[in-house]
Amino acid sequence: MATNRTFTMIKPDAVKNGHIGSILAMITNAGFKITSLKLTQLTVSDAEKFYAIHSERPFFGELVAFMSSGPIVAAILEKENAVADFRTLIGATNPADAAEGTIRKLYATSMGENAVHGSDSDENAAIEGAFHFAGREQF
Ligand code: RTP
Ligand code: MG
Known about the structure:
Blueprint: E1 3-10, H1 12-16, H2 20-29, E2 33-40, H3 44-50, H4 60-67, E3 72-80, H5 82-90, H6 103-107, E4 116-118, H7 122-132
Antiparallel strand pairs: 1-3, 1-4, 2-3
Helix pairs in contact: 3-4
The structure holds ribavirin triphosphate and magnesium ion (MG).
């Protein structure tokens, strides 16, 4: 299996609730290497661009408002099979369906406020990483 990269955000709910350290520890303990990292905040326009794929969905307005509501942690992560393994580590979108021991099971509060983002493909991981990090911030 090739080493590749995924992109994640610790969402505003988890930052607000004090879970940055615990979530980063779970990520590194699961074998992911952090190659970019920062605390930042999305503007409404940034959130609309980042989640443009969901612009026709009924929850889009709520999603954009939530994702721009406070600071987030953005990171690029490296590991073998990074995209799929990270989605396993975070668990299902709805924390009620997330497996025991996953980040969302532990820290998400609802379907909308679900603690973390994980890219859904290698292609989107590259696009999302470049959206957040300039070349000199990528290691
Ligand atoms: P993400 O992109 O954030 O990693 O989450 P995901 O792949 O598991 O889920 P996705 O279908 O891509 O949805 C993106 C985010 O939109 C919010 N959402 N709310 N209220 C709802 O029915 C609903 N459905 C999705 C969640 O914050 C989800 O993570
Ligand atoms: Mg998604």
